[in-house]
Amino acid sequence: MYASLKSLLHKILPQKSLFKHELFLRSFYAMFFIGNNYQCNICLKKLRSFKKVGEDKLCPSCGSLPRNRRLWDILNKSYLKDSMTVLDFSPSRNLYRVLKKKNIIYTASDLSGHFISDVKYDITNISSADNCYDLIICYHILEHVINDIKAMDELLRVLKPNGTCIIQTPFKDGGIYEDYSITNDDQRKIHFGQEDHVRWYSVQGLKDRLEKTGFEVNTLVFSEAQTNFNGFDEEETILVCNKPSNA
Ligand SMILES: [Zn+2]
Predict the structure, then answer these.
(1) How far is 106 from 229, CA to CA, in rounded Å?
(2) Tens of pLDDT along 192-232?
(3) Where do the domains of the chain lie, and which CATH numbers do they carry?
């Protein structure tokens, strides 16, 4: 029911109108989930349960996914600093809302037109000067990009020395799996898990590519109980990439 309602609203409301009224529309649905067992750390609503959508635990109030909530948690604890410059690629609407309220210079970019954004940068040719961002968020982007090496070069170029780029993609075990002869949506879904994905990364494979580009990479691995209060994923990996001062 949730998926069909969402699909209907996307069809009948323009994106900007949906963004404007989303929290109001969600507030009716979220009433069924009010409780004290869990809390979304993004919208701060207390919940009886998260909404199960496939394998994901969605916040019925703001629509956040577990990976959005984890990212918000680590950003607040370790990375966001007043007045810093932040570039974010295709952010979720729930994170866009709260990041816009922070005392930072926040730019959201989306080339596809599917996400709320301020600019439309091509990640393989970013329209920004060298060394201009303190922090870049690149979540679930690189698995869509054929020329990912060029994208990594660009992320490094526009990041300030000692700046940080936080990266996540879907991961599998083993090495990177990519085959550019596969261009058909159905085949891509079979081979790479989604119609618009062009590869599967492994954690080590992505780390190697980023290090070859010139980043220093730290791998954050999280492990949680299934019933954790903020509905984080039980297992999650994030790559934190720093631009060396001499890069
Ligand atoms: Zn929420």
Answers:
(1) 29
(2) 888 889 999 999 999 999 999 999 999 999 999 988 999 99
(3) 1-64 (no CATH), 67-242 (3.40.50.150)
